Automatic annotation (TrEMBL), chain B:
<dbReference type="InterPro" id="IPR014756">
    <property type="entry name" value="Ig_E-set"/>
</dbReference>
<dbReference type="Pfam" id="PF08770">
    <property type="entry name" value="SoxZ"/>
</dbReference>
<protein>
    <submittedName>
        <fullName>Thiosulfate oxidation carrier complex protein SoxZ</fullName>
    </submittedName>
</protein>
<dbReference type="InterPro" id="IPR014880">
    <property type="entry name" value="SoxZ_dom"/>
</dbReference>
<feature type="domain" description="Sulphur oxidation protein SoxZ">
    <location>
        <begin position="10"/>
        <end position="103"/>
    </location>
</feature>
<dbReference type="InterPro" id="IPR030995">
    <property type="entry name" value="SoxZ"/>
</dbReference>
<dbReference type="InterPro" id="IPR013783">
    <property type="entry name" value="Ig-like_fold"/>
</dbReference>
């Protein structure tokens, strides 16, 4: 009898992909215009790990999902609006704003977020979007750099990212960026903390299962910066990494640290092919 | 005044006479409840939007009193019947005496 019951459970689990904490089959259409790619074939470098990559959007409740379908209801867009104001604000010793060089962000910033983090030839390092913004602020505007993942920096990141929504994530992992990408991959598979959890323990081996009362997603970062209902503000990807590593009961790296830059590049590359969603809404 | 307050409103640009339209409004506001304490134990003063009204051609459509437990960035969605062309006027009243308003025209 007991054996039969177990078999029955196994059959249910195998029979449907969308069980319990798993991804649903909804379609994300933004503002009735842009249909987003939220599920697609995994990039080649993930061929040993998974067949399909799935946006975190699919792991959330219908109510939360719906908030992201309309710019008006997506509260992340409020912060993107603050970023838009900062875009036109003159700061620093050079009397310049972002707009002085880059003009209208709706034209100049299209597709930018999809390719970051990326290699910068001059600086010979992999740079995240925030690092690039800060480089502009210090070298071209003569302004103070923003603290990593601080409100101003995230608002600007959200504003810039919003112009790439619907475009596929496409970060380069070969060429000069490869060394950093491999560093990130190392971190992804390293077990941290007293709980000895690696990113992969949850987000590769157990996505679709429950972690306590919540759903485990694949940990894709195509939706960052993310407006979280739990703290009613935008969250940066490094702050999210920090939260995850803290939850393994480890000492974490700092936002903006080389470790997190490498990890951001690696994790983002796991989402190559998904649409950029930032600013997205999650719980 | 509370910082970063910005009202946003979504109203269709046109409708037929007698149509029932959906109006969405959102104002970015911290909605500090007055229950919280800062790191040194002092009460953070209450600062919320306490009243929201919407008028159409000087006729009241909705008038709401808000309470301290309402979360950040209050959002309202409601329906209104439009008999004629005109202007919706939206007004938010802040605890500190500030009044934020915005308006949207609709043609029938």
């Amino acid at each position: 009898m007991r054996h039969m019951a177990l078999t029955a459970i196994a059959a249910v689990l195998a029979g449907t992909a969308a069980f319990a904490g798993g991804a649903d089959d909804d379609t994300l259409i933004l503002n009735d215009e842009i249909e987003m790619v939220t599920k697609t074939a995994a990039p080649d470098h993930l061929s040993d790990a998974m067949d399909e990559i799935i946006s975190g959007w699919h792991f959330r409740s219908d109510e939360t999902q719906q908030l992201q379908t309309d710019d008006f209801e997506n509260q992340g867009m409020i912060f993107a609006d603050y970023g838009a104001e900062a875009w036109d604000t003159v700061e620093g010793s050079e009397d310049k704003s972002c707009a002085s060089c880059h003009g209208d962000a709706a034209e100049s910033m299209v597709g930018v977020a999809a390719t970051y983090p990326k290699w910068n030839d001059g600086a010979e390092e992999v740079r995240t979007l925030q690092m690039q913004v800060n480089d502009c602020r210090t070298t071209r505007m003569g302004a103070e750099p923003w603290k990593y993942d601080s409100g101003d920096a995230i608002n600007m990141e959200a504003f810039v990212t919003s112009h790439s929504r619907g475009m596929p994530v496409n970060v380069a992992i070969d060429g000069p960026a490869e060394a950093t990408w491999l560093d990130g991959k190392d971190i992804y598979y390293t077990r941290y903390g007293q709980l000895e959890l690696a990113c992969a323990s949850c987000h590769e081996q157990n996505y679709g299962n429950y972690i306590r009362a919540d759903h485990l997603s694949q940990g894709q970062i195509n939706g960052f910066p993310t407006y979280r209902l739990k703290n009613a503000k935008l969250n940066g990807v490094h702050s999210r990494f920090k939260g995850c590593i803290r939850d393994t009961r480890a000492h974490t790296f700092s936002p903006g640290s080389p470790e997190f830059v490498a990890l951001e590049l690696y994790v983002k590359s796991r989402g190559n092919g998904l649409s950029v969603e930032g600013p997205s809404v999650r719980n | 005044m509370a910082s970063g307050v910005k009202p946003r409103v979504k109203v269709p640009k046109s409708a037929s006479a007698g149509d029932v339209i959906t109006i969405k409004t959102l104002i970015s506001h911290p909605m500090e409840s007055g229950q919280r304490k800062d790191s040194s134990g002092n009460t953070i003063q209450r600062s919320i939007i306490w009243r929201f009204t919407c008028d159409f051609n000087d006729q009241n459509v909705i008038d709401v009193v808000l309470a301290p437990a309402i979360s950040t960035n209050p959002y309202f969605e409601f329906e209104a019947q439009v008999p004629e062309s005109g202007e919706f006027k939206f007004t938010w009243y802040d605890d500190d005496g500030d009044v934020y308003d915005t308006s949207k025209k609709i043609s029938v």
